Amino acid sequence: MLENYSPIIAETILSSFVAIIINVIFFEGGIMRIAFLEIHREGSKCHGKFWFDQDKNKNELGRLDIGPEKTVKIPDSTHPYTENDYCMKDLVTALIEFDEDKLAVVFEERGQFEIGRFLYSNTLGKLGNGQITDELDLRIITDDEFIGQLPWPLLSQDGIFLVNKGWAISMIACTELRDIELAPSPIIVVVAPEPNSLARTDRDQHLNQLQQVLRKHNPKMVSPQNLILVYTWEEFEMAIEGNVIDVVYYYGHGEGNQNRSRLLFESTENDQVLNIAAGELATCFRGAKRLPSLVYINCCHGDAGGFIGVGRKLGAFIPCVVTNRTAATVKAATVQALMFWEHVLIQGVKPHIAVASNYQFLGANTGLNQTKLHWFTPVIYASYKQWKSYPPKRVKTHIYDSNWRAKLDRVTQFGQLSFKVREMVEHDKPQVIAFIWYGMEGQGMQHFHDRLEVNLQHQVGEEAVVVSYRPSWPASFKDVNTREFSGRAIEETLLDTFKVDSLDRINARIRADASGAKKVVVVLNHPHICNPVIMDPKLLMNYLEWWDQYGIDRIKGDPHYFVLGCSFQIKKSNEFRKGLDKLGYSPLTFRRLAIDVLPELMKLKPEDINDFVSRHNIFIPESRKKDFFDYIIGKTDGRYDPSLIELERLVVAGYEEVLEKEINEMNDVVSDAEGTWGM
């Protein structure tokens, strides 16, 4: 299970400064030496060997005192100069079962150092200081389940975690290392189940952030040919069996302990949850056309099962597997994943180094730090020797605005919205405006949600600070027949959105998130509605009535102005608009809350793309502009989302070569058809 959190913006995850530091730590002194630490256990006795890659001689470490019954002394945080003994098997069990009471006591900062020092002194510490280098690619080999579950990233010497000295520490399930070459634009399968009966994982937000990171540097990575997105177990099986895959990323729920390890998938049948064992997952992978080089299983307890865990099961035959050794919060899991993928797919960093860099730089970028156990939750199985990849070269385009996808056309709708928001801030009323927009499938409703977050601050200017949140819809109804939200269901949703224990504390949370700004525009971007079972206009009216009658009273007192963003995917625009009018959707509907229904998001026209190209200074010869615009509109029928893909593909890939080839092919088809018509 993944714990919920308020989403963060992907582009702040990894600065160029951090990338430079990674290169300095891991590459400046040359290639990191690969070393192996092999540990066997018989009963209560452990024995170990250490050697560098290609060395013929192995250093015998003798007996190692790290068995399950061994104890480590950890200072008592409540009683100075007092130490308590903790059994190693109890510590491992606490991690696997996520015993928060024990974890809070034992895995505080001092406890982490003491456990790391214990592991080091009873393994590598037996070598003497002359054997160890400052930067090391350490691969740990063991045939013992307990040894494999120890928190090896905590290895510390002289009060310093070795990962902070440039070490990369990974597990290895097989001793035969092989060289891996990742394709320049790898084929990626993203598996993102989120069954309705389980806690939310902010899946859509996370996947949107991931695609932003990839698209920014290599648009081909997120093309339909290269990014295969699936949700159910059946879709996953088909994707693995029917495609040549390079990378697989699972983001969802997992459950596991020492006796079981499961991934939780959606099913195409009856919306049920499928519990897929790690062994069943491994069998599916073995049936692939070609084994992927890299698999990231981002869920709770992926490696908790030891021999039956995801890491060891898949690591036995897949060159690189990353998963989590214990429970993972949504915040930690998504932040670490975004950093990892940007390192590996965009910067060309080797996976084991990418995980090591995550260990080091979490605090600077996310607020997560090494005083909590989330920083060493990821565990990597690396059975490759050389890892070669082709990071994308920086593409020179004339689209300088990284948020341009949210700004194509929709001038009328956004102009109307931004004007109303500026009026609200200037005149100090109303305190809440609900904006509703709608359109047919593919018309960019979600992009308009994104636009509120990336462009509204510019429109408001210095009058106020804009902060954004993405609440879910209330999960329960008071009465199934009348389909009315209970006030408590709405309150619980808002408490979860703002991470507070009372609605009266929402203003304090907003002040903190807005860094104490005097005036704040609070954007509540609700999930895009494409399923009337989840939300329909009548039910939305109940939700807005709650805001008008109760919600505003709970948030008044501070100069905070709320913008509720709600969008519908519809099939028949006339019927939908008539339904809104019949229900009374208008700015005068409520006493204190205003409602504004924006014009329908329609298909794009050639002049819309021409306007965009002109504003962003994208050079296209006048002689080719008509071909350029007609080609895009003709191929996409003016639908917003496909037009974005085509526009970016043509601009980034080189429109001249693409147009010359594809327009000629299109003209050939037209010529053949004209002959048939007798024209």
Structure description:
- The protein has 679 residues and is of the alpha/beta class.
- Strand 2 and strand 3 form a beta hairpin.
- Helix 6 packs parallel to helix 10, helix 12 packs across helix 13 and helix 19 crosses helix 20.
- The longest helix has 23 residues.
- The chain is globular.
Q: How is the topology of this model organized?
A:
Layout: E1 2-3, H1 16-27, E2 33-42, E3 45-52, E4 59-64, E5 71-75, E6 83-87, H2 88-97, H3 100-106, H4 109-121, E7 136-142, H5 145-148, E8 156-157, E9 160-161, E10 168-172, E11 178-181, E12 188-191, H6 203-217, E13 227-230, H7 233-242, E14 247-251, E15 253-256, E16 261-266, E17 273-277, H8 278-286, E18 294-298, H9 310-315, E19 320-324, E20 328-329, H10 330-346, H11 351-366, E21 378-382, E22 384-388, H12 411-427, E23 432-439, H13 445-460, E24 465-469, H14 487-498, H15 506-513, E25 520-525, H16 537-555, E26 560-569, H17 573-583, E27 593-597, H18 606-615, H19 622-636, H20 640-653, H21 655-677
Parallel strand pairs: 1-20, 2-7, 7-10, 11-22, 12-13, 12-14, 14-18, 18-19, 23-26, 23-27, 24-25, 25-26
Antiparallel strand pairs: 2-3, 3-4, 5-6, 8-9, 15-16, 16-17, 19-21
Task: Provide a compact summary of the structure.
With 679 residues, the protein is an alpha/beta fold.
Question: Which descriptors apply to this entry?
Answer:
six-stranded mixed β-sheet; 679 residues; disordered N terminus; alpha/beta; five-stranded mixed β-sheet; 21 helices; globular
Mean of residue pLDDT? 81
In the sheet with the most strands, the strands line up as 13-12-14-18-19-21
How is the biggest beta sheet arranged?
6 strands, mixed
Spans with pLDDT under 50 lasting ≥5 residues? 1-30, 666-679
Which shape, going by the Cα principal axes? globular
- Radius of gyration based on Cα positions: 28 Å
State the helicity in percent bands: 25-40%
Helix- and strand-based class?
alpha/beta
Q: Cα distance, first to last residue?
A: 64 Å
Report strand %: 15-25%
User: How many alpha or pi helices?
Assistant: 21
Q: Total strand count, please?
A: 27
